[in-house]
Design a protein that fits this description.
By secondary structure, the protein is α+β, with helices and mostly antiparallel strands. The chain is built from nine helices and seven strands. The strands form two sheets. A five-stranded mixed beta sheet has the order 5-3-2-1-7, sandwiched between helices. A two-stranded antiparallel ribbon has the order 4-6. Helix 1 (6-21) runs antiparallel to helix 3 and helix 6 crosses helix 8 (153-169).
Length: 181
């Protein structure tokens, strides 16, 4: 069996997420290597931001958690953050998120961690949103310009420097990521 195309996976996630969110779906946006033309099917993850009109309830959060456990790493790892419109309109750094999934969190989700506990603040979102604003792809929903704020330069630099510091600390454990950053 051949490896599915990355856009097949993206389209599948988009279809499933719009069903889960119903009228709370504002948009589905790609950033990272896929949006910037550097996606490597053997090394890259699929970076997604999903924006909602309102915060997600705990029972709704369990649905994308189950979807991502099935879809991520089959064959591409997926990193996705669910953000709500109110938090984007009232920009703060680090930016709040309603739900986040990445392979780093897989084991916790498999142990049936309460998906509600996977909300909080993520300093990386300043960089992700900046990339979406400059090179992102709107796969569905409202335009990037109508959805995302312009992130202040100091917040973007803080986000990038935080990632840089993490790379220095983890260079031996994850040299590929450090080089890609």
């Amino acid at each position: 069996m051949s490896k599915p195309d990355v856009m097949e996976i993206v389209n599948h996630l988009l279809e499933e997420v719009t069903v889960i969110l119903k009228d709370n779906f504002k948009g589905f946006y790609l950033h990272g290597s896929l949006a910037m033309g550097g996606f490597n099917p053997d090394k890259s993850d699929v970076d997604i931001l999903i924006v909602t009109y309102h915060s997600l309830s705990s029972d709704i959060k369990s649905k994308p958690a189950k979807l991502l456990l099935k879809t991520s790493n089959a064959p591409f790892p997926i990193e996705v953050s669910f953000l709500n419109e109110k938090d984007l309109c009232n920009w703060q750094h680090p930016c709040p998120f309603d739900f986040h999934y990445s392979e780093f969190w897989r084991e916790k989700f498999e142990e049936e961690v309460d998906p509600h506990s996977v909300s909080g603040f993520d300093p990386d979102l300043a960089a992700h949103i900046t990339i979406v604003n400059h090179r992102g792809i709107c796969a569905a929903g409202e335009s990037i310009k109508a959805t995302f704020p312009n992130v202040p330069r100091e917040d973007y630099l803080s986000s990038i420097l935080g990632d840089y510091r993490d790379c220095l600390e983890n260079l031996k454990e994850d040299p590929v990521y450090s080089v890609l950053i």
